[in-house]
Amino acid sequence: MIIRLRRIVFWFLVAVYLIACPWLLLYARGIILQPARTMDPLVETGLIHVATQPAGARLFLENRRFAQKTPTAIRELLPGPYRLSIRLNGHRPWERTIQVQPSKTGMLDPILLLPRRIRIQPIGTTAWTRLFPLEKTGFLFLASGKTAQQCALYEVDRNRLYPVPVPWPKARLKTVHHEPGSRRLLLEGEAGGARKWLAVSLSEKPAARDLTPLIPEGTEEILWDPSAPEQLFAVEGTAVHRIDTEQGALFPRWLEGVRGLAAREGQLTVLKTSGRLEWEPLADRTDPTVLDDSGEALDWLEETFYRIHRMTETTTLFLGGRGQLLSSRLPHLLEENGVRGLRPEGRTKQAAVWTGKRLALLDLEPEPAAAGGFEKGATLDWVYSRGREIRQAVWVRRGAYLLILDRDTVRLLETATRKDPALNWSETGALEEILEVRPGSGIHWDERRGILYGLERKSGRLFRAALAPPRKEGL
User: Taking the C-alpha atoms of 250, 253, 259 and 262 in order, what is their torsion angle to the nearest 10 degrees?
Assistant: First the structure.
């Protein structure tokens, strides 16, 4: 009797397994049974993964509220369009119509939920007129008037202001030269029709040195390697003068026949008038004849001076004097003229490129070629077309967003979802207006703290405004 009962239980369990196992496998693949569909009752479903900053937002799908809060996933969604709403108390709502696709995951990560009301916290009482962000240093350069003496450094981490000792009482401040990551900046001024140059160290006790006697009057471009700021390279026509600020020495016409230059990470990149691109280490190099002739010939470049930007191992960009942008990858010409700036984002291998009226994204890594085909060339994807006078663009949340300073208005553009057609990205839906700043001034974004710095539009006071939660270490 016991043996017979065991057999019955065994065959029952086998039957349950044979019946349930296929359904479990189908369910694991996102396939569910819809008895109402008599012709094809098995349906492949999709899902949506949503993560917000800050977390803890509520999700509404076609006005149906879900119990789970972000970050979360909504599963077993039938293919088709859905209206998704994300809401968090004290923050602006996020809404978009998305297309759920069978057996695919729609990734909405991260969605930055802006405060409903942007609270501005003034820093000090000085009425500044200009703000120059000093990228990758934690410092800002501030000016409160037209003369070079009315300026200071602001250290973000310590929330401190340091006056800059400028030795020219009546010199007019023209501009600030800085290389991202450098602990030194150059002030360019003008007095009595003559140019003035001052090197300033970025520290709590800024040291200033007058370099006017060393820098030729006809200098058109000046640059340096952030890791070796004591070596300056001044471009005049097709000649490059080398300036050793430690020795106080000028090496005139150190290089000749040059129409492009870059100095980065201990390496000098030179584009010769012959169209040849050459690379040489800067360490212990005092004689220009060390530059060899084994570089790449770029005969498709025009006869003008270029700022060279080595973006990745496979992509070098050339920004010409009238704003033409060219790439080392086909097609070489990306924009014929008018480019005012570019900003790379290393983690996502892309760059923001802008003119006065438009902003585009450029993918820096080539897409794999199909079998028997050609590699897809780099192209500009114009994502912002309503500009009036774009002056600055800053990456936010590791390439997911861009802060755009357009004349005196700061806007936030969502960029992470633009490549997925199922997420229905559009410029109008992805754009948020943040605030206005003082005309002619810049902005600074503190990625670690999620704070925007700028100058108040009317008073000119320096301010900070929290737009996002602090970034977790390691993310």
Answer: -30
Instruction: List where CATH 2.60.40.10 sits in the chain.
Output: 45-112
Output the DSSP codes for 450-475.
Answer: TEEEEEBTTT--EEEEE-SPPPPTT-
Taking the C-alpha atoms of residue 188 and residue 212, their distance in angstroms, rounded to an integer, is: 9
Which range among 369-373, 378-382, 384-388 shows the weakest confidence by mean pLDDT?
369-373
Q: Are 288 and 254 in contact (CB under 8 A)?
A: yes
Best CATH choice for the domain 45-112 from the list 2.60.40.10, 3.30.565.10, 3.40.50.1100, 3.40.640.10: 2.60.40.10
Rounded Cα gap, residues 456 and 10, in angstroms = 78
- Contact between residue 311 and residue 303 where contact means Cβ atoms under 8 Å apart: no
The type of residue at 419 is K
Residue 417 structure tokens: 């979802």
pLDDT (tens digit per residue) in 312-349:
887 889 999 899 999 888 888 999 999 999 999 978 88
Beta carbons within 8 Å of 313's beta carbon, 6+ residues apart: none
Residues facing 173 on adjacent strands: 189
